[in-house]
Design a protein that fits this description.
Length: 146
């Protein structure tokens, strides 16, 4: 595995596939994602950012890192605009409109379905990382780039 892929690396525009099995290889990938996220002082990382097109993200909460497999946003409430940066688009920050409170569903490392509500910065990080799984980047929010 490698370090973080930097835009315009084409893999960042790919659409990620669902991860069907949480085997030792998947666990190694997730451990590597967590290591890289902390090494780069990030608060979230998506598998495409390390060159792997699977629907896996890791997010850092105040309680540590949370890996989520096949995450999806079920509901979004409210609206919040804030400046975001991205490890794959260094030295760029963009104002992005996000839902202020979201309901997320995914699978944990024990292969259990989890569902939870997050708000504030954590909601923003989840939405940012899930965007990566769809091949979307923060620069897509710049005016005039549509």
């Amino acid at each position: 595995m490698s370090d973080i892929r930097i835009y315009p690396d084409p893999i960042l525009r790919g659409k990620s596939l669902p991860l069907k099995e949480i085997d030792s290889k998947a666990r190694e990938m997730i451990d590597e994602m967590i290591r890289i996220m902390y090494a780069y002082k990030g608060i979230g990382l998506a598998a495409p950012q390390i060159g792997i097109l699977f629907r896996v993200i890791v997010v850092d909460t105040e309680q540590g890192s949370i890996p989520i497999i096949n995450p999806e946003i079920l509901e979004s409430d409210g609206e919040d605009t804030a400046e975001e940066g991205c490890l794959s688009v260094p030295e760029v920050s963009v104002n992005v409109i996000r839902g202020s409170k979201i309901l997320v569903r995914g699978i944990d490392l024990n292969e259990k379905e989890i569902e939870f509500e997050v708000s504030g910065l954590l909601a923003r990080v989840f939405q940012h990382e899930i965007d990566h799984l769809e091949g979307k980047l923060i620069i897509d929010n710049l005016p005039g780039l549509k």
